[in-house]
Amino acid sequence: MINTVRAEVITIGDEILFGQITDTNTAWIGTELTNIGVRVVRKSSVGDQTEAILQVLAEAHQRADVIIITGGLGPTKDDITKKTLCTYFGVGMVRNETALALVTGFFEKRGREMTDLNRGQADLPANAVYIQNDWGTAPGMWFEHQDRVYVSLPGVPFEMKHLMSNRILPKLTAHFQTPIIKHKMIRTVGIGESFLAERIEAWEDALPEHIKLAYLPSFGGVKLRLTATGSDNTLLDSQLNEQVAKVMPLIEKNVYGFDNDEIETVVGKLLIEKQLTLGIAESCTGGYVSAQITKVPGSSAYFWGSVVSYSNSVKVNQLGVLPETLEAYGAVSEETVRQMAEGVREALGTSVGIATSGIAGPDGGSPEKPVGTIWIACSTSQRTVTRLLKLGQYRDQNIQLTTMYVLNMLREEILNQ
Fold first, then answer.
1. In this predicted model, what pLDDT tens digit does every residue of 242-271 receive, in sequence order?
2. Which one of 209, 317, 320, 323 is CB 3.0 to 4.6 Å from 343, fit for a cystine?
3. Are the C-beta atoms of 262 and 216 separated by less than 8 Å?
4. Whether the Cβ atoms of residue 371 and residue 340 lie closer than 8 Å to each other
5. How many CB atoms lie within 10 A of CB 330?
6. Per the database record, which ranges form the MoaB/Mog domain (predicted)?
């Protein structure tokens, strides 16, 4: 019988709690554990205090089968993970000769003097199984204690990833008989979480017991994550695809991609497929739309350039916006953004032009056009479409949301052709 194997990931270090470094380890470890069928049930961060570490270890023992610890294995006095593990397991410290030889060779190769602190990195809790770190001096350690597996790894991300990939994940796979956990992500745009939930409620209620649904809100839309658990990889893939096929007729208009698809990548593939080229005119987004487009490798095949027209004079002189349009309707208007999209398409000689103009904030709004009032447009040889966005008070969010919406407008127009 295959049972669920639960894991907890613990990061150790005051620098994480102080916000001095960003913890990327837990996200990476969570993904890798899921890929081998281990379900992460908790992630914890704790500072460099013995009692706090002992407490979180004891708590993890109650809810997890595997406890993965990163950090606190350096040579200095503030790195207390090994000593704390000795206290937790009730054992002493023993010098590991294999670890000592590795540390010695590490320093000799670099022509550096080794101190007693460096030699101390070869001292391990007596019950530890030594896990060789080929990329650093801090060892990995594997413990088996009261039907639990504890793994202690260095906090340096590239060292941790090497140890996990090449040593720990194979050992976990051999130690546990784990189920297969498969994810399928459906990426939507332009629909809120509650509206989406109402639309697919009947489908969600009919999901099989072994397939779970999660709503993951993001800028401009919601990701739907289907998670299936079982023992047959091919069967799970088939069952997930079957559920996607059932829900798509309900949400197809709002779906722009699956799994790791990003909107800019999807748009790029469509432009190549349809042999179209793109020009961009940006005002309130200040080049952010263009930056997202050019994040995609190979975007030079379809992206010809952009005009960041913050001033009205640039709108007139480079994009061909009529002065009377600006005078009558203002820079933030349907009429202006339409002429911007058409103007950039003509100026750059592209198949498609998209444009943004609005009040990103936090200042600049009025009763008639409050902060968050933004117009977007997409122009092709067939037509120009526009849309009014009524967003919030926060500048960064407004820029990111506008970018998401204008790229989705572009996607929809390409598909409509």
1. 999 999 999 999 999 999 999 999 999 999
2. 320
3. no
4. no
5. 15
6. 8-175
- Whether the pLDDT of residue 2 is over 80: the answer is no
Neighbours of 15 (CB within 10 A): 15
Q: Whose CA is closest to 374, among 362, 386, 361, 357?
A: 357
DSSP structural state of residue 155: S
Cβ–Cβ < 8 Å for 65, 7: yes
pLDDT by residue (tens digit) across 256-315? 999 999 999 999 999 999 999 999 999 999 999 999 999 999 999 999 999 999 999 999
In DSSP terms, 357 is beta-bridged to 375
Mean pLDDT score, 19-31: 94
- What burial class does residue 101 get, using C-beta atoms within 10 Å of its C-beta: 0-12 exposed, 13-18 middle, 19+ buried? exposed
Q: Pairing relation of β-strands 38-46 and 140-145?
A: unpaired
- C-alpha span between 334 and 383 (Å, rounded): 14
pLDDT digits (tens, 9 = 90+) for 337-380: 999 999 999 999 999 999 999 999 999 889 999 999 999 999 99
Backbone phi, then psi, for 252, in 5-degree steps? Answer: -55, -35
pLDDT at 1: 45
Residue whose tokens read 């002065």: 323
